[in-house]
Amino acid sequence: MSMQFLRWLIVAWVAAGGCREAFAGGEAATEVWSLDTMYRFSEAYQRALAAPLEDRAAQYAKAVTILNLPTKTQSNINDAANILTALVTADADDEVGVCAQYFLGRIAQAHNLDGANFPKARELFRKLYRAHPGHSLAQLGYVQWVLMELYDKQSADPLAARLRRLEAEQPALADREVWKNYHLVMGQAYMTGDVSKPRALEHYLLADQVGMIRWRGRSDFYAVIASLARETGRREVAVEYCRKFLRDYPRDQRSHIIRQFLNELQPNGTPP
Amino acid sequence: MNRDKILNTIGFSLLGLCFLFALWNVAFRTVRELEPGVVTIRFAHWQLEGGLRSTFDILSREYEKICAARGLKVRVEQQAIPERVFPNWLVTQLVGGKAPQIIAIDNITSGSGMSPKGMTTDRIARYFEAISARVHEPNPYNIGTPLEGVPWCDTFVDGMSRSYDSNLLDYYSVPLSMYTFRLFYNKPLYREIFGDAPPPTEYREFLKACATITAYGRARGLNLVPIAGSKYNAPMLTDYFAGTQTQKLGRRLNRFNTLVSNDSEVMLAYLRGEWNVRSPEITASLRLLQSINRNFQPGFQQVDRDSATFYFVQERCVFVSAGSWDNTSLRIQAPFDLGVCHIPVPAVSDPDYGRFMYGPPTEAANGTALAFGLVRGAARSDLALDFLHYLSSYHGNALFSKHSGWLPSVIKVPVDETLEVFEPVIDGYPNAFGLGMGTETSRLRDNDYYLLQAFPDSPQKFQDVFERNGYGKACIGDLTSWQTRVLRIVTRQDTLLAAYYERSRDRKFYELIEQQIQQEQSAYMVDSELSTLTKENQWQR
């Protein structure tokens, strides 16, 4: 056996070992996510602990799982943030790095037990969206940023001014589902302070170009559009959504009211 | 032998007999389960109402016959667990890995995130099998029926919407019935007092009937009152009446145009001063409630459900309000012919109460009930699912309804003539809110409730004390707890969101985003508004 052949054998053996490890690591992350979807967070965490430290996917899965470990403690949240920060520091632009940045934003926004840090969360989401505007989670981060801008308790601007400013941004959210949620958020915000019902309706109609997924949420959505359109004089839209509502939710507790709306809107039973 | 020794011997003998009986029972079941070639399907529930267990036995035997015809030896056993011990039993069985294949699941509605029967989102996720992949396929037992080829979920009156867990984004249960609330009456007694007159259909007629019953009892020296009440069923009846009075107010306060009243919207509106405890609608609802309360037996608030039933079957009152689930129990217990009518709410033309309402309340939101879930990883879960298919099939559900006297959950299933009165009223208007909208507001209402009884001619005393005791503060407390709870759910969803994103970025991922964003926005909105109201020094948080 020549030295050359032996060398190749060693290289092949090392490569195979690496592949096996990488494969095991990928498997670990998949298993962790699978356990997470069954609310088996402690078992998921134990599984993630066994994964090698260099497996970025498994480390990311571990950090996100820690956020739901019972009992929720600030120390756990700090551990999760530290793992995510290390992942971002190593590579902020790969898939794991982008996802880790999103969850660092979420920790600042919602998870910290000693209080939310909205300015930090806003900064993180803004930065993430600017760096990766095409990534779904970066776009979702943008919607979270919009939420925090709208309901910022420290802001001196009235809600109407904030809405105008945000609308002027005209974000290019390529993920249609995220884009839909942006319009739902804006529509609801226009309704919050009774800022503008016609503008709220416009946003809701844009959102409906994609459509609501949740069955129950969709019934509210149709009822809101039908009644808003009726109030703002958009007769055709009101009729269309009354019909949609009655078609999909004939046994809803509002179906009688919606039927009355429809009768008012087309007294002779004819479409407008 | 002295008396003590005899008593001790009898006591120990009885104990020994009970032990032997339990031992025999367990051993017999174990031996039966070991019978070769026989598959045992066990299902558990807490419904001990009359007629239901025998109905499940009939359905079980029918299913065994169907399996036998297919060459399968199947034995179906039901386990009826008393309601009070069900939560503990459930945990023990699930954790111990000894749970039956099928267990009844109730809705998680309480603020603690746990259903009255001990079900939590965690437990459902961990121990129950999602059946989402099956609900869009037709039920095989519907072949040759009017529901042949219809997706399983579309064969239920509510499209299985209550079976869907909005946190877990999956279907987990199969409902067999649906509930409505009615007024039961003693037919012969009613006839004796009113002759051939039909039961009341409207509030004024009902009040008049109550007055006549009281006068009739007094004139004959009878201990007779119009309605049997308890802390369980009286609030159901009075809330139903009172809810009619806030129909219009609820719509006015509905800022988000969903056309149905929302508790957080209503509480915020209270804090903004858009309504108060002295608003005409609230005064009317309290007066309406007092007028009904006067017709219950004295001390009704202290007694439980069984005592009210006892009072009714002893013919010491003419009416009792109960759910459709009590229909068979009452018929079994009552030694007289039973009549059932709708709750006689005020008419829109009513001079005092009509102006605050749009019309009779709808029952379209009642949805389905008596739902069963499949335990994850249980032996022969394929057969357990098949049994659920059978129970919820056109024929299975018809048989269930016929023998139990409960409403079916499946569409197009013929309803027995005696059950027609229980069918939900779909047309009508949603009833709106009452004063108790969360833990704090309900506690305050319950604490001061006695004032409505103590001063039955006017709600003014109650209103004075209620506002003084801090209804606004209670609203803030309930809004804050609601917001905290929502944010806790939202943060919990983050791990799932990441998991769904990594797994497939499919419908579940986007559905969760839709839900999370909407919940988070509602929580932020409440927080922001509470903050503004506090800044303006109107309220202290």
Polypeptide structure, described:
- The complex is a heterodimer of chains A (about 270) and B (about 550).
- Chain A has 13 helices and no strands.
- Chain A is an all-alpha fold and about 270 residues long.
- Chain A has a domain at about 10-115.
- Chain A is elongated, with a radius of gyration of 25 Å.
- The N and C termini of chain A lie far apart (about 90 Å).
- Chain B has about 550 residues and is an alpha/beta fold.
- Chain B folds into three domains: about 40-180 and about 365-420, D-Maltodextrin-Binding Protein, domain 2, CATH 3.40.190; about 180-360, Periplasmic binding protein-like II (D-Maltodextrin-Binding Protein, domain 2, 3-Layer(aba) Sandwich); about 470-535.
- Helices cover about 50% and strands about 10% of the residues of chain B.
- Chain B is built from 20 helices and twelve strands.
- In chain B, helix 10 packs across helix 19 (about 470-505) and helix 19 (about 470-505) runs antiparallel to helix 20 (about 505-535).
- The longest helix of chain B has about 35 residues, at about 470-505.
- Chain B starts with a helix and ends in a 6-residue tail after the last helix.
- Chains A and B meet through helix 1, helix 3, helix 5, helix 7 and helix 9 of A and helix 4, helix 19 and helix 20 of B.
